[in-house]
Please model this.
Amino acid sequence: MALTLSDADDTPGQSKLFLSHFCMEQLSQLQSLTLIDIEFDSLNVIFSSLHHLERLEAFGYDSKTIKAYCPIWAYNYSDSINQFHSNSSKGIIEVASQLKRLRLSNYKIVPKMLLPCLRHLKVGTTTIDQFRMVLSQTPNLHSFNISIKDDASHSEYYLLSSHLALKRLTLQIYSK
Model:
């Protein structure tokens, strides 16, 4: 069972409507969840309830547009977003050990823990150090899609060659 929620321009308010009829606890058999342009309040509800999704194997979240949905009452936007990323990361950590697929547009919410079940990972822009950390935490990763915003050295090739499970790498490198 899969669920995609989107509050994009063509489906505004979808997440709020969905959450007014269903609670996350009812979705314990859900295997895949994708969130696109979700409103701030709905995100908080969803991320705080991820632990109820006991069979979740795939999770995708696009956080690029959170600015558009950040509430006006937020006194300090930067602090609010950082707090949200922290809460989001905690929600993902609760289900991370069971995930096989993870797609996040923001590296800040990637769990900083060993992810032995993870096979497929797509992450937004990171640094070389973050790239190294992800590789060290995902020993069974088969496919990896990532953008790096540092100058890569040849030592990264050695790091990749030691990651034997990796079958497919999509890598974009941007100079600082």
Observations:
- Helices lie at 14-21, 40-48, 66-69, 77-96, 128-137, 155-161.
- The two ends are 42 Å apart (CA to CA).
- DSSP finds six helices and seven strands in the chain.
- The longest strand covers residues 120-126.
